[in-house]
């Protein structure tokens, strides 16, 4: 039984307000959840409610969302008994009543949903990942961490158009070894950048943000840093993954502006193919814009047998959109962000649809994060095999990787990596 539901405005990793939601049960059990927030958001994402009050955090305040939790949502839920978080989620969806959770705010809704899921696990004396594995009816596994070590796009002030350059220790023997590999390559990359005269300041997700504009130059540096650290570049060792977040550099005319060049969808696909020929790129997320569905079908036909093509802004963790994409043979993988859809239940549904269709899934943080580690448990519990949570640096990023290490330590029998 829910005794109390309470939200407060806290800060995210970018010094912007977000929500912390605390749920107290009648048994005196208390859990809390922190709400993430994106910068390069898809237009069809569930709606994050901001106050637009210029006197309060420059318009970024979430006082209205907080008031919805403490008012309407608390009134609807407190004093009532729920046996599963799915029941709470159904209640939240009905209470909001809109498709995009725009009335109560997806930030308010996901905060309560995360807290409800955590309350169910805690009440049952289970770890969050165990509870999720039972609900999703899948075999849990430890995911390959995708460390975002070079930041560009909307996450950094440099001239790099691609948003994320990740290293993925696909060939690591275990999760702790994968984290160690990530940290070692990160250190080597930092040394290389410093030697090359580049600034080593960090972007929003903890990766370096050097003054480089050509993506190929970054890929070259990553391969060198992997080698410097004594690892093998490639799928048997450490592979590369990209999130260009192409919607962000798409022009109104439907072209893609990269380092001064204006490319058509097909020219950009050619460029990706060249990158895959020259570098061990194993995954590309949002390679094309969210409105370029015809481009996406050609991208998938060209590269889908060779690499993972992940839909983020185009899919927004939305079960209906993913279903349409599967039908139209768009991408072969989905990025999974809980706040894009707004409840844990709908997130699990999106992942189930992917599993049934043979689409892989990568659980993801947002560029604005808190110390909350729910997504680490989500990745483990759904057995999807992949998690991206930024660089192996900055507390809010490292919290997720450290949670994976704790799970791995407590449960040595859990397998690591993607199912091949
Ligand atoms: P966001 O970026 O959290 O700023 O939307 C993450 C991503 O594009 O994957
Ligand atoms: Zn993305």
Automatic annotation (TrEMBL):
Show the CDD domains listed in the entry: enolase (cd03313)
Q: What is its EC number?
A: 4.2.1.11
Q: Where does Mg(2+) bind?
A: 243, 285, 312
Keywords for the protein's UniProt record, in alphabetical order: Cytoplasm, Glycolysis, Lyase, Magnesium, Metal-binding, Secreted
Enumerate the Gene Ontology biological process terms.
glycolytic process
Metal-binding keyword on record? yes
The enzyme's main class, written as a single word, is lyase
Show where the Enolase C-terminal TIM barrel domain sits.
139-420
Record-listed substrate binding positions = 155, 164, 285, 312, 364-367, 388
Cellular location(s): Cytoplasm; Secreted; Cell surface
The record ties this protein, via Pfam families, to: Enolase_C, Enolase_N
What pathway does the annotation place this protein in?
Carbohydrate degradation; glycolysis; pyruvate from D-glyceraldehyde 3-phosphate: step 4/5
Q: Where is the active site?
A: 205, 337
UniProt main location, coarse = cytoplasm
One GO CC term, this protein? extracellular region
Q: What does this protein do?
A: Catalyzes the reversible conversion of 2-phosphoglycerate (2-PG) into phosphoenolpyruvate (PEP). It is essential for the degradation of carbohydrates via glycolysis.
What is the protein's name according to its record?
Enolase
Gene source species = Streptomyces formicae
Traced from the root, the source organism's taxonomic lineage reads: Bacteria, Bacillati, Actinomycetota, Actinomycetes, Kitasatosporales
The gene it comes from is eno
């Amino acid at each position: 039984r829910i005794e109390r539901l309470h939200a407060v405005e806290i800060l995210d990793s970018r010094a912007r307000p977000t929500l912390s939601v605390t749920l107290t049960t009648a048994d005196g059990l208390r859990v809390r959840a922190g709400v993430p927030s994106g910068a390069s958001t898809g237009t069809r994402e569930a709606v994050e409610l901001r106050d637009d009050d210029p006197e309060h955090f420059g318009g970024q305040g979430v006082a209205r969302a907080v008031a919805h939790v403490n008012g309407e949502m608390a009134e609807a839920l407190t004093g009532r008994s729920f046996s599963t978080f799915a029941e709470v989620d159904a209640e939240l969806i009905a209470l909001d009543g809109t498709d995009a959770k725009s009335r109560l705010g997806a930030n308010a809704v996901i905060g309560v949903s995360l807290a409800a899921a955590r309350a169910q696990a805690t009440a049952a004396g289970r770890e969050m990942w165990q509870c999720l594995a039972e609900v999703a009816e899948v075999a849990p596994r430890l995911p390959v961490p995708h460390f975002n070590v070079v930041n560009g796009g909307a996450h950094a002030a440099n001239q790099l158009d691609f948003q994320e350059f990740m290293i993925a220790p696909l060939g690591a023997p275990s999760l702790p070894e994968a984290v160690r590999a990530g940290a070692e390559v990160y250190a080597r990359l930092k040394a290389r950048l410093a030697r090359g005269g580049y600034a080593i300041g960090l972007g929003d997700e903890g990766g370096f943000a050097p003054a480089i504009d050509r993506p190929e130059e970054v890929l070259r540096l990553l391969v060198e840093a992997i080698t410097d650290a004594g690892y093998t570049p490639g799928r048997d060792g450490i592979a590369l993954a990209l999130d260009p977040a192409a919607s962000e550099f798409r022009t109104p005319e439907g072209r893609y502006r990269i380092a001064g060049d204006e490319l058509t969808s097909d020219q950009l696909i050619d460029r990706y193919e060249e990158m895959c020929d020259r570098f061990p790129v194993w995954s590309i997320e949002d390679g094309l814009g969210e409105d370029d569905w015809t481009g996406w079908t050609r991208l998938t036909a060209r590269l889908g047998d060779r690499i993972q093509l992940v839909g983020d802004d185009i899919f927004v963790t939305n079960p209906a959109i993913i279903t349409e994409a599967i039908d139209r043979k768009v991408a072969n993988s989905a990025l999974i962000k809980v706040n894009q859809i707004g409840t844990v239940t709908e997130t699990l549904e999106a992942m189930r649809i992917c599993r049934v269709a043979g689409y892989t899934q990568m659980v993801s943080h947002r560029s604005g994060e808190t110390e909350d580690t729910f997504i680490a448990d989500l990745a483990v519990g759904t057995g999807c095999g992949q998690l991206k949570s930024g660089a192996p640096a900055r507390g809010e990023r490292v919290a997720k990787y450290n949670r994976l290490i704790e799970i791995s330590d407590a449960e040595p029998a859990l397998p690591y990596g993607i199912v091949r």
